Amino acid sequence: MAGHLLILLVSSIFVDNYLLSRFLGECPFLGVSKKVETAMGMSVAVIFVMTMTGVISYVVQTYILVPLGLEYLQIIAFIVIIATLVQFTEMVIKKTSPTLYQALGIYLPLITTNCAVLGVALLNVQMGYNLIDSIVYSFGSAVGFAFALVSYAGIRERLAFAPIPKTLEGFPSALIGAGLLSLAFLGFRGLV
Amino acid sequence: MGYWNDFTKGIWRENPTFKMVVGICATLAVSNAVANGIAMGLATTFVLVGSCVIISALRKFTPEKIRMPIFVVCIATFTTIVSMIMNAYLPSLYNVMKLYISLIVVNCIIMARAESFASKNPVSNSFFDALGMGLGYTMALVIISIIREILGSGTFLGLQVMPVNYQPVLMMVLPPGAFLTLGLLAGLAKFIDTKAAERKKASKERVILGGRASSDITG
What we know:
The structure holds 2 protein chains of 2 kinds. By secondary structure, chain A is an all-alpha fold. Helices cover 73% and strands 0% of the residues of chain A. Chain B has helices at 2-9, 24-30, 34-57, 67-89, 91-102, 108-118, 123-153, 175-218, and strands spanning 155-156, 159-160.
């Protein structure tokens, strides 16, 4: 049991990395990765929102949607859950750390439309995970997301001072950098 | 002119994928085969057109404060419709891209068009704007998937196009290939734009210089 959960955790962090191999949540990946500090703040917010979403969406799916035969409302129901959670996180961060709130700016409400968050809710259902599996998988995916985001921010901080051809400045170079990082993550495939 | 302009700006000038770089999650994920790219592009176009028309029709009744939830519910409805249609008629394709079809609901392109265009413009303009953006997105997806499928598997829509002894570049159909292809294509789009802007500037300068020369003579 524990071994199975450990494999799930490791594979969700490294092998099936949300950013670099499943392509979920690319907007914040390119948007807030200019500074390590903002990337850290964003990561913490995403870890919290994703784990909570994983748990609550599982409960809603199993105890409300399936018994009532309302599976076709899944997308709408999940989106409403996420929007509420994000609103809540925003209020908490605003109260506890105004500087972080300033730094995250527009990206905080945008977690609502972060595919990674909706993706984790949908994947939990698709894979048929139970409650414990869902919690571990949601948390692992979020940590994987954070890991990739922060390491990429470290690369981009250095990239800012590199002499890049004019046409490749901005998004193109950011994407190519992400491609190289993703190539490195391919190496984790043999891990599990 | 107005409708034509609304329609064409999404194709190149404000192309969502190459110029604005929004909604790239699905672009990167499904562009490993041309068939997937076309299906995803058309599905997104359908949701985009449907929800933009509805949002635009309701724009006078939509309270400013709760517009986001209204947009999201509208988009989610169309996404559910498209996923049901695909499940019924294209089950094999649907099984491959199930997750990303559901994720159309959080595609930034749709929210961006709803917020910046459909909520402020009449239905007909919104329709053409959405259609142009959708087709621009489809075009981008098809270009990326053609490059990736031909280089990565040596096929086009499943048919062998490369010589038999061609060794496929496996990396191109794996995740890194998606990032690299999109990065290089976005760079290419930027390069074409800079060149076009330079040429425009040069011709404009010539006109200004010409004008000054003639005024000098009359002065």
